[in-house]
Amino acid sequence: MSQFSSTFTAASSVSLPPPSFYVSVSKRSFIYCCSSSQSRTTVVNGKFDGKIVERDEIRFGLPSKGRMAGDTLDLLKDCQLSVKQVNPRQYVAQIPQLSNVEVWFQRPKDIVRKLLSGDLDLGIVGLDTVSEYGRGDEDLIIVHDALKYGDCRLSLAIPKYGVFENINSLKELAQMPRWTIDRPLRVATGFTYLGPKFMQENGLKHVIFSTADGALEAAPAMGIADAILDLVSSGTTLRENNLKEIEGGVVLESQAVLVASRKALIQRKGALDTTHEILERFEAHLRAADQFMVTANMRGSSAEEIAERVLSQPSLSGLQGPTVSPVLCKRDGKVAADYYAIVICVPKKALYKSVQQLRGIGGSGVLISPLTYIFDEETPRWRELLSKLGL
Ligand SMILES: Nc1ncnc2c1ncn2[C@@H]1O[C@H](COP(=O)(O)OP(=O)(O)OP(=O)(O)O)[C@@H](O)[C@H]1O
Ligand SMILES: O=P(O)(O)OC[C@H]1O[C@H](OP(=O)(O)OP(=O)(O)O)[C@H](O)[C@@H]1O
Ligand SMILES: [Mg+2]
Q1: What is the pLDDT of residues 222-249, one digit of tens each?
Q2: Whose CA is closest to atom 19 on ligand 2?
Q3: Residue 213 CA, ligand 3 centroid: distance in Å
Q4: What is the pLDDT of residue 8?
Q5: What whole-number distance in Å separates Cα of residue 295 and Cα of residue 344?
Q6: Nearest CA to ligand 1 atom 30
Q7: Quick check: 48 and 116 in contact, CB under 8 A?
């Protein structure tokens, strides 16, 4: 575990990632070089300057390994975008349904770095990774902020024992008189940008950060740190290492997001159309994933009367209201409608309540089917994206 006392103290004006990262470092700026198969781009302060490098394909970065990799491929598959990878060690792949897209498998942090350097155009990573490695860069645009997997939070944790036994909030931690300039609070984290920023924003003055690549939860018991700032999801790792989260200590709630380079969306031919298609597919699938389609028959005198009854029930309003259609049969030689069929979408979590309400207003023969996609006229996220791009 290495310490970066000079660059990572919360009180200092700059906080930079490990120096090995740079070709040259000065207090306020850094330059490093980043190569790609088709270009060599000079990157200043994490950004590439000027126009994008010409190429025909849209490059889409997906996590090459780790917990995001499998779920990302599953999401794409559920959206009928199957990624054709010849073998798991090959880092380039195709999506047959998107002929102008080239998939590149990369580590999540490298996806963000390569979006900034112009070597990727689109990517899927956790919001934590975008926030840490993107550092608020305006070129990064979150196109979809809730892909519904990779849920976790970046949270500060301290030991349950010893001097921390009665400390349960960030405020109490900050007010402990033991933290001084000579003996600051020692925090172990992989989040060397967000960590100092959070401490500074919360007025913790005497803090020093150290970093390591994993198993940070061991640091307090090893005597290396007083606290850790790391991702938490089930809380098991914290619990097993005798650590606890504290009130006010959550830096960020994270899940998988679709992120794009603003420059690519504006300048690269086809990038915006492709992003629109991917966004629509994601939205349609994710909207459908938490809904069921419910059909039922109901006796009544007219479609309007049936609709009145259905709409009087809070769980039965559907997406835009119920579809009501007559069930026509022949009676005394004439075609008549004694029954009406209704079709509505209901949230999965309200399923049983909806069935009870349907029965309560005379519904019978209730059928429930899963939904695959719900395509709306236009998704709000698409309108938001256009407005972020000034289009
Ligand atoms: N415990 C967790 N539960 C749910 N999601 C998590 C959890 N830990 C991490 N994630 C999400 O998955 C992403 C990738 O985490 P993963 O553990 O696969 O890689 P990593 O440890 O960050 O990367 P590397 O192995 O390259 O250092 C994280 O950025 C975060 O968004
Ligand atoms: O709250 P929990 O469900 O216990 O998950 C939290 C743990 O998951 C992540 O580690 P990971 O398993 O990715 O190992 P790593 O330290 O090698 O990254 C994170 O860094 C925590 O250690
Ligand atoms: Mg991990």
Answers
A1: 999 999 999 999 999 999 999 999 999 9
A2: 231
A3: 8
A4: 41
A5: 7
A6: 126
A7: yes
